[in-house]
Design a protein that fits this description.
By secondary structure, the chain is an alpha+beta fold. The protein has 7 helices and 20 strands. It binds flavin-adenine dinucleotide. Residues 31, 64-71, 85, 103, 128-131, 133-135, 137-138, 140-142, 180, 186-187, 217, 219, 223-226, 298 line the site of flavin-adenine dinucleotide (FAD).
């Protein structure tokens, strides 16, 4: 379904006109692109719009989404509204090698920004289709680095519409988690401490990381990234591979043949068949090695 097939309805919220899209294909909301349309999506163009919305709505009535690269969404979820922040809703600020970037910025745009200004640090995340807000909320990490290593402050809108900056300690970063897993606060911007560097070197390191990722992960497929968190002292991918599931196909869903902790939508996969596959993998691995895998992917059920 094309973008034009979803309807746009304007609403007025505390003097601001906000456009709501209705019946939005999930292929536009998540990188797994499972089947179905989602009832309502609001893309905010400013922090003031987020604040007006949050102060006026029950936190249980909406779901915050970034680029959907770690999300599996039920089109008939009990929550019927998804809210997101546009990539250009927040003005970029730069002070030496410290930058403030909007949470709606995609990793691709952040990489372009870093090359343009000769700033190093975030190359490890190059090639991932995520937003800065989702990376903060998930404490994105790989190859021994986490996004929290670079964060010095986070601007949020809280449940009552209050806008403020919080510290990394307040954010309670852990392994693929943060306070944003428990508090319905929207990350609107983050301050990152990067390193001055030659722009060409930054670009070369990014391209090397993208090549490395493309060799190890199904970057071109419809996938949501790591299915499960790594259990204590082990790797989820190894547990899945040891159970004989690497490359296994369940009709429209498959465990990637290039990385066993990635699930691929072969086309037209539904939310429920994908959930069944996730549960199958968990129980097969449990029987094989006794390890209980915990989901990393966030479900909107
Ligand atoms: C090909 C591929 C490779 C990947 N590689 C990695 C990897 O190496 N390391 C890794 O850690 N992850 C990886 N991922 C997973 C994913 O990219 C990360 O988890 C990323 O941080 C999610 O960002 P997002 O904007 O897509 O978040 P979404 O999927 O949109 O949301 C994820 C969670 O964050 C919350 N959230 C999103 N935006 C905000 C916001 N502004 N404010 C508050 N909460 C918010 C959502 O409510 C949800 O709970 C990969 C994914 C893919 C598809």
């Amino acid at each position: 379904m094309s973008l034009s097939s979803s309807h746009r309805n304007p609403i007025q919220l505390k003097g601001k006109i906000i456009l709501i899209r209705e019946q939005v294909p999930l292929s536009q909301l998540t990188t797994f692109q499972n089947d179905g349309v989602f009832p309502r999506v609001i893309d905010f163009e400013s922090i003031a719009e987020v604040a007006a919305f949050m102060s006026d709505h029950d936190p249980e009535s909406f779901h915050i989404l970034g680029r959907g690269s770690n999300s599996l969404i039920n089109p008939d979820a009990s929550v019927q509204t998804v809210i997101r922040l546009n990539h250009d809703a927040v003005q970029e600020e730069i002070n030496g090698s410290t930058v403030r970037l909007g949470a709606g910025m995609t990793m691709n745009r952040i990489q372009e920004f870093a090359v343009r200004h000769g700033l190093a640090g975030l190359e490890f995340a190059a090639g991932v289709p995520a937003s800065l807000g989702g990376m903060v909320a998930m404490n994105f990490g790989c190859w021994g680095r986490s996004v929290s290593d670079f964060i010095s402050a986070i601007q949020i809108v809280d449940q009552s519409g209050g806008v403020r900056w919080i510290t990394p300690d307040d954010a309670q970063f852990g392994y693929r988690k943060s306070i944003f897993s428990r508090q319905k606060w929207m990350v609107c911007a983050a301050e990152l401490r990067l390193e001055p560097a030659d722009p060409d070197d930054v670009k070369l390191r990014m391209l090397a990381r993208i090549r490395e990722r493309a060799q190890k992960q199904p970057l071109k497929d419809k996938t949501f990234g790591s299915i499960f968190k790594n259990p204590e002292g082990a790797f989820a991918a190894q547990c899945i591979e040891a159970a004989g599931l690497k490359g296994k196909v369940w009709n429209r869903v498959e465990v990637s043949a290039s990385h066993a902790n990635f699930l691929v939508n072969r086309g037209g996969a539904t939310y429920f068949e994908t959930i069944e596959v996730l549960h199958d993998i968990q129980s097969i691995v449990q029987n094989d090695s006794g390890i209980q895998l915990e989901m990393e992917v966030k479900l909107l059920s």
